[in-house]
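Whether sequence alone determines local backbone shape is best considered at the level of individual chains. The sequence in question and its structure tokens are set out directly beneath this paragraph.

===
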Amino acid sequence: MQEQESLWAGAAKRIITPSPLLPVSGGMGPTQPTREKRGELAARALFLQRGKIKVVIVGLDLLGFPGVLGDRVRARVPRVPAQNILIGSTHTHSAPDCYAFPDGNSKDGHTGDLAFIERVCTLAAEAINEAIDRAQPAHLKIATGEAQGKIAYNYYAPELYDRRMSVIQALTPEGKTLATLVNYAIHPEVLGNSIGILSPDLCGPLCERLEERAGGMALFMNSAQGGMVTADNRYLDRPKDPQKGYWEDARTWDECLRIGHTMADEALRFLAKAPVQQKPGLFCKSLSVTFPVQSPELWAVVTQSPLGYPHGKGKDHTIQARLNLVNLGDAQILTIPGEALPNIGFYLKRKMAGVHNLLFGLTNDAFGYILTKVDFHSFPRYEYVSRTSLGEQTGEILIEKCLELVRTSPKPEKQSPG
């Protein structure tokens, strides 16, 4: 029997790399063949419990993981309330399609491999159930800081991105690392989907470095990286279009290693000064939100994919997505079911109630870019992100409902030094 005042934590992972290798997807459109792999795709699960409250956080090395698949995973984990299982994707652009995007070649054609998709669901559930089985008493260290080094930038406007990285580390009472979670906004597209490599991209080296240096299991949860916060793999001495500020870039595994290792080192730097939280609180709340779908492209994905996305009928072009708020120690977490632009991320963090405020992007669903109405189709540069957004109201609805969760939830507990 667990003590009411103690936090328990457990972590586990499964390798989800397909064998033989499959084509990889960088978004809607044709997949690209692969000839080799660099690193392994993984499903990583962190289980948390305090008293009767149970929460699971899952990170998958995939472009996106639709909510309809998340529900398949949750159905195989009966020991945790389904609404408390948060499933996110790292957004690597070098993994197989799990949306089953319509390919336009036939009525039933799509770009997904259904056997692979089902296997990912099975392995993700296995990782969660093992994490539950491995749970033990835990303390926490939580830290936030501005990550230094050549890691990320905004491709559309280089300086407009969030440099803050938050890190959560679960430790045994004796100080042994159980798990380290890194939350940061970045597109893991150093390699991309066009050079024939299947890979977790920079997220693999990030997690491997943390596991090597800190022990335990590491996982990466993306943040508000939309429009277009990407990996800084630029050759700054090779301008491609000086007037627009575009550079040639390095699409190499060595660059994945450099950026992933830099991120890991920064995470450990922040944790070094973080106090131990010996009795951290845990709270979880969820909200089902309806979003209108204005995009013909995304409506085609919703209605034509063989995965069976739930959606409105007839003229009711709507979908539903789940938002979660989690208080963990002195941190507060909100989930985002897609790729929110950085201004949305900044605004939400400013309105949240934690000492450390984290956003888990592409979590519980992955419905394209999320813009505010004033950004939607505002500039030619935003044409693509607007076209692959649910619609003009997506950002407005997300902000409103996230703030509702913050307003109607308790604040994270202040922690005295351990």
Q: What stands out?
A: The chain has a mean pLDDT of 95. The chain has eight helices and 21 strands. The longest strand covers residues 136-146. The helical segments are 67-74, 114-133, 203-214, 253-272, 296-304, 342-351, 383-387, 394-407.
